[in-house]
Amino acid sequence: MQNREEALKRKKRPFRWHILIFLAPAAIIYTIVMILPLAETLRLSFFYVDSTTREVSFVGLKNYLELFFNPYWIGPFLNALWNNTYFFIIHMLVQNPIGIMIAALLSMYHLPGKKFYRTAIFMPTLLSFVIVGFVWKLMLSPLWGVSKGLLESVGLGSWFMPFLGREETALTTLAFISVWQFIGIPMMLIYAALLSIPEEIIEAAECDGVTGFSQFFKIKLILILPTIGIISILTFVGNFNAFDLVYTTQGPLAGPNFSTDLLGTILYRTFYGQQTQPGDPNMGAAIATMMFLIILLGISIYLFFIQRKITRYEM
Amino acid sequence: MAISRARRNLIAELGAHAFLLTFTIIALFPVILIIINSFKSKKAIFRDPLALPNSETFDLIGYTTVLTQGNFPLYFWNSLSVTLASLFLILLLGAMAAFALSEYKFPFNRLTGLYLALGIMIPIRLGTIGILKLMVATGLVNTHWALILVYTASGLPLSIFILSEFMRSVSADLKAAGRIDGLSEYAIFFKLVLPLVRPAMATVAVFSMIPIWNDLWFPLILAPAEETKTLTLGAQVFVGQFTNNWNAILAAMALAIIPVMILYIIFSRQLIKGLTAGAVK
Lengths: 315, 281
Fold this sequence. Notes:
A: mainly alpha; MetI-like fold; two-stranded antiparallel sheet; 15 helices; B: 2 domains; 79% helix
């Protein structure tokens, strides 16, 4: 019955080759270079390699059961998961609101020098983690004394501590370094969205006496909600994939005492091994799969519950 | 009334300047610190890190070390060609796929969109072993093509996701008018839709450029040969070799920062052109 309906539809319209031509090149490259290698990782998570005999055996879900029920794995995994959540919360509370504020100020007034501001604030985003990690390590290090000197110059010398070396402050410090590095992304995306709001809407608002802040909150913010949605999801994915910053500043052991351990670093250690323990690609593959499921869950929540509630205005 | 309003605007503008200036200083301070100190002698770097180099402390020892030991112009050229080729493919192929997804109703449209969006969520690094096997099998190891293909594949999902969001807000009447005028679907895409999403394309370009330019992982695994080494890998190897030579490290970092700055300033002109072209439509 359904088949007949579809067949009828197809008869009405000839095969639309252009859809295939538009889609195929991207889909082919993406499938061969990204999806198939990732599927290979998934496959590895169901196998076990004996460390002495190098014998490969299919073990089903054993790696996952090990991850969930062996205290050796589940403790560090939950620690990393919580650290990652905290890392994400800081980004949502600090990076995105400030990014939106900067973009709003840049677009609201005809400020002289706004091109300079925009370029400068975006600058850190362009730097590699190798540089960012190294610079902040140098600046925060008591050895070089730059941050101590700065705090002393504003009379807060007593506040100085080795921020990256203490368990209580290391993760928060890293989160702020990451905010410093990536604040340009929400700023740019929001700025582009604000610029694409048609003049007529703004003029109409001004005629009705809606200006300044109330104009921003009542009109512009509503119109750019889809962009804010995209930014939140990009932040979520970026944060739950984060690895490089911790790796370059704290090393693969995510010190002090694993207080800056994220899912990415735990994955790296499992995959490639650490001082005492050899690498375990199969267990690593299981952790990678869990990371994927966590991110998938977050994205599904966004796509099915939040995105549907956002009204999209044709501009 | 008019005067008080003008004054209020002035105060608001000053406030805006103060706010933006604060963030500008925070953003630039570490970068400037590196550049300043890369021109100083080792003693001066430690004695007074915040001071500008003067005739007494000025020293180019770091740069001479870097330029005699490293092969930086070649690394720079390698990074540039890999980045530009990947960007071209990400933008063109990404826009084409985004158009197909946002414009046409066809079976499995939503599913195809989800499939292509999967890549935003998974770091491509998780598939490194498979990628390495693939590149060895096709003989692409230690060529730029290996990197370009990997970066294109990993950049496409985000490009498709962002561009299709923007393409959904392109007026349907415009496309209908084009079809009535007898434009082919290709012409509608290239002549009507692409120019309208230019701001989004510029944005995607800037955001895709950053992780490609800064990547350390894949150059290390897929193209570590001296003649294919990228700038980030070159700088990393250099920093690793000269751990205690602060002059050389600071100079290497300054050299790694400056090209990105120039590249960004060039792109940001395009970005602004694109942004305004989109806004004025």
